[in-house]
Amino acid sequence: MSSWNKSEKLFGLGADSELAPPVRAFRTALMLAQKLRNEMDERLRADGLTTQQAALITVVKAMGKPSLAEAAAALGSTHQNVAQIVAALQRKELLQVEPDPADGRRKLLSATNHSAAYWRERDAGDIAAVADWFADLSPDELQTFCELSERVIVRIDRA
Predict the structure, then answer these.
(1) In degrees rounded to 5, what are phi and psi of residue 107?
(2) Helix or strand or coil: residue 106?
(3) Which pTM was predicted?
(4) Mean pLDDT of residues grouped by 10 in the chain (159 residues)?
(5) 17, 116, 117, 152: least CB-packed within 10 angstroms?
(6) Burial of 107 by CB count in 10 Å (0-12 exposed, 13-18 middle, 19+ buried)?
């Protein structure tokens, strides 16, 4: 029995599921998220990184120089958890922390040049792996998948 068939049976998923559709959707999304995170963690493991660390770097690059609190909020994580991730990324020279010139108590995060070079080196391989994970979906199905998922995210954010 494949791991999907075992999971399908354990969580009540699949076409024959007797779960209420929203519960089935929740469990399916949860399982997909976990499997995707595990796959990316496996890709990053050789370099001593995790998907969560990569996500923080992505947020920092997108936000410019966010405070630790702003980065934590963007990730939907706690200040303490993000502080631990920041410390690990500082040791790996992928993030730097500087005091905010306007408020010395606040710390601002930024990606390092080493980080930029590291991601440039591996981006193509990671993008290819992600494309392969979603290869059974057509471009239209991917568009629909994203639109539907984003609607759920917006609804949760409004709650």
Answers:
(1) -110, 135
(2) strand
(3) 0.85
(4) 69 85 94 95 96 96 94 94 96 95 90 95 94 98 97 92
(5) 117
(6) middle
Q: Which two tokens stand for residue 159?
A: 């709650």
What interhelical angle do 3-11 and 21-45 show, nearest 10?
140
Return the SS3 of 46.
Answer: coil
Residue type at 93? E
pLDDT of residue 4: 60
Q: In the chain, what is the greatest distance between 2 CA atoms, to the nearest angstrom?
A: 59
Give the pLDDT confidence score for residue 13 in this predicted structure.
84
Residue type, 5: N
pLDDT the model gives residue 9? 75
Whole-angstrom distance, CA of residue 4 vs CA of residue 146? 22
* Count of other CB atoms within 10 angstroms of residue 118: 18
List, in sequence order, the alpha helices (H) in 12-100.
21-45, 51-63, 68-75, 79-91
